[in-house]
Amino acid sequence: MTSHLSPGSADALLFDLGRVVLDIDFSKAITCWAGHAGCEPQSILARYVRDSEAYRLHEMGKISDEVYFDSLRRSLGIEISDAQFLEGWNAIFAGEMPDIANLLPRAAKHVPLYAFSNTNRPHVEYFSKEYADLLGHFRQLYLSSSIGLRKPDAEAFDHVVAAIGVPAQRIVFFDDLAENVEGARARGLTAVHVTSPHDVGEALKALGL
């Protein structure tokens, strides 16, 4: 994984947030919604489609929270309020990924850090406050709901590379999803597939950071 990384080979580091910087536990949302709906979590989980059209549009800021929650109300077959959906929606954040709070400031002393995340407005509002200190190590956050573009689309990576202002091959990108890693590599970035909490630390070590 780190064989293509070497000291001095990066001018910028670009991090996904979910399961790279912030730990995510989606079962907390399902459990919360089931509690409000008075049903078994398994029945909701069986109906939930993560990458639905409404989900994608919500992550690009194209539809409101109310419209997205209404789509969930129909697809999940539960009658709970927008406030109850929001409570579960924001319950997924399970803390910081192991050791990331030490790794980010150390790396930031040598190279600028950026984040690029597929996310939505309520999550942005929540994590921006809850994890303000940790996220303060990033020079800029590129968020799908703000830029209207999502990983792994080519135009999304092109937009972020242009905004950072560094050649794509000099940007090292960290993501937990294989399709995003492949999308980044297709646009010329050096990408690290984060499959365990140790992968970020190993990659930074290989970069001499």
UniProtKB/TrEMBL annotation:
Q: Which domain of life is it from?
A: Bacteria
Q: Which CDD domains match?
A: HAD_sEH-N_like (cd02603)
User: Which InterPro entries does this one have?
Assistant: HAD-like_sf, HAD-SF_hydro_IA, HAD_sf, PGP-like_dom2
Show the coiled coil region(s): none
Q: Where is the signal peptide?
A: none
**Which NCBIfam families does this UniProt record tie to the protein?**
HAD-SF-IA-v3
Name the record gives this protein: Haloacid dehalogenase
Say which species the protein is native to.
Bradyrhizobium iriomotense
